[in-house]
Amino acid sequence: MISYILWDVNPEIFTIPEIAGFGPFPVRWYGLLFAAGFLIGQQIMIHIFKKEGKSLDDIDALTLYMVIATVVGARVGHFLFYQPEILFKNPLEVILPPYAGLASHGAVIGIVTGLWLYARSRKSSGQTFFWVADRMVITVALAGAFIRFGNLMNSEIVGRYTDVPWGFIFMKNTEFTKIPRHPAQLYESISCFILFFVLLALWNKYKTQTPRGLLVGVFFVWVFTLRFFYEFLKENQEAFEANYPLNMGQILSIPVVLLGIYFIVQSRKPLPQSGGK
At which positions is a 1,2-diacyl-sn-glycero-3-phospho-(1'-sn-glycerol) bound (predicted)? Predict the structure, then answer.
């Protein structure tokens, strides 16, 4: 007899009633978890800045760069990689609510760009791009775990049919047949939680001596190698992906994994004595 888990969670926690003609405003698990990633991540960066003697005055600016870069990158990436026709016909949809559609590969591009812009003005304080990025990926891994759990609460990005005992039937998902499916969102969430502790342990081991690019490389290889294989367990996000042997998530993951391997290899090389991190 096949067992399964009946997933019938309401994605809304509660609704703020209409006030002065505005609203009502539903408060959803996804939004709460998304925000929690930034808030907890900020506290982690405060801890890191204190331990490494960096100015806490930069934390607010760094957080602002991260929020804007993540949201804009994820939104633009979704339309660029999955719905390019909308991006070019109606670019305003990128910034208009309800903000349905966020691409993790786009978020990576946005975060890298945001950190590069942030680091440009702070090299004198030792906050080079890799110094910031190697530490920021610790918080990004945790945020990724929260966001993927938010996808589970939304009953979205569902897996394919399975007969494993932990298969989920997503009762709130109206797009796909209600059969036992891989909880792919949960797989990715757990993977990101494990990565968070791995990266935190690596930073805690090296702190100021963290090899340049090591944590970024580990993050890229871990997240996107697993993403490549998890995609085999997921339903395609867009219809056009059915025409290709690999879906868009897998195609985009390959160069990121290769880049991560390059960073890890480079991190093993000694820095010039006068360069520092």
Answer: 148
